[in-house]
Each structure stands twice: as structure tokens, then as C-alpha cells.
Amino acid sequence: MAKNDSSTTVDPVERLARSLRDHGVADVELAFVLGSGLGVFAEKLEKARAIPYAELDGMPRSAVPGHAGQLVVGELAGKRLVVQQGRVHLYEGWSERDVTRAIRAFAAIGVKGVVLTNAAGGINPAWKPGTLMRITDHINLQGAAPLLPRERAAGNPYDAEFGAALDKGAREARVALESGVYAGLLGPVYETPAEIRVLGWAGADAVGMSTVAEAMTARACGMKVAAISCITNLAAGITGEKLSHEEVVATGKSVATRFCKLLEKSVPHLCAALGR
Length: 276
Fold this sequence. Notes:
The chain is α/β, with parallel strands linked by helices. 32% of the residues lie in helices and 25% in strands.
């Protein structure tokens, strides 16, 4: 590759932001990041257009099943949205800057708020698989710092008003939405029963391998952040059953109707919280 090739000299975030604009991703203030098995929400958008990650300069691509690997731009409730179907993870070998690149690019093109979603293991023994949990706080045990030295993130990245918009949407959709603390671990292996006992002692209600870096980065970039975990299985040691990614994806798909109703009803409230 020639040394003067722009792809070797332009910051990857800048490259991706420019590519998003070139593909018509503009005038969007609200973004959704969809986790394993939860990508069906993108099908609810009207006037939708899908953009494969392969067509976006600088967009990292995941090899994990359940992540479609495309952006979908469209409208819902009269609001223009961008939906990220799938993300990359630290455990795939990507760096903390890689896993947050899309978030930084969204901020660069003017996105003001992001709703992060994930599939998670349940630690709270009162919750069954299929429970939806709004993340109110997190414990970062991934051993990675996604922020630059000059950036300052103020504690809890999850905005209370923005999160309350999800609560309103859940009530209107008549979908139960719990709230709790998410523990983010590196992966790729599932946690041991002893680790789950420690996490429960520390106050975690759910555990997963994503989201925390994106949440911190979005907040540092000035975006409002809200997040939802779909409890796809009970964590190790709670039931004694073997854990699998297939179960994670299958449970995510099984709650798709409730999940989509909640997000659909939440969109007007989320946009109102952004001042739109």
C-alpha cells in the first residue's frame, strides 16, 4: 500500500465518520446498538436502508453469531434513527479503541443519544431468562480503558432522564422492565460459579462482555446514554445447567416482540429527552 494512501494517515474514527456521511447517514440524533439476537428491532424502521459494515471505511466487523454486521438507517414514530446491528468485542482481539470506534463516529456526525443493548447472564435470582433490565450503573472488570488521557468521564455514564424515557416506553408497551447493575467482563469464557458469587456480593444483577466501554465513551463524547440487558440465561452456578451462546441467541429472539414494543414506544420519549 502506498505511503500516501489516505487510509493509512487519517484517523479511523474520522474515516468512519466520513464514510457514514458519504452513505447518507446524516441528520440523525438517536442511535441504537443491538446485541446478540436482538437485531430484529431494525426491521421496524420505515424508509429503511441497510448498509453492510463491509461498505463502511473503518467499521470493525464481528465474527460472533447473532450479529448481522450492518447499519440500518430509517424512521420510526416520525424520528430518524440509525441502528447498529452487531458490535465487536474485546475478546475477539479488538482493542478498546476499536470497540468504541462506531460510538465516536456517531458523535462526530451529530448523534446526541445512544441506547445500548446486550444479551446478559442473570445474577439476580428473582429474574428468569427473558427478563429485560435497564442498566442503571455498571462494574467495569474488562481491564481496558477506552478513554483518552484528555477525556473526562463523570462517574456513572447512564443518564437518569434518558433512562426514564425507557421506563415510560415500557409502561406504554405494557412490557416489564427491571432495573439493575451490569458487570462487564472481558470473556470469551463464561464466568465460574465462584466469580458469579463475587459479582452478586458486589451488587451486580447481570453480567456480560460488552457495553461498558461504549457507555463510557458515549458519555465522554457528550452523548446521553441508556442501556438495556436481555437476561438470556441464568449465570453459572445458579441452575447448574451448561451455558451456551446458542441459548443466548435463542432467548434473545424469543423476547423480540416485547423488546421491539418497548423500544418503539420509547423512541418519542428518548427524542424528547434530547430536546427534539
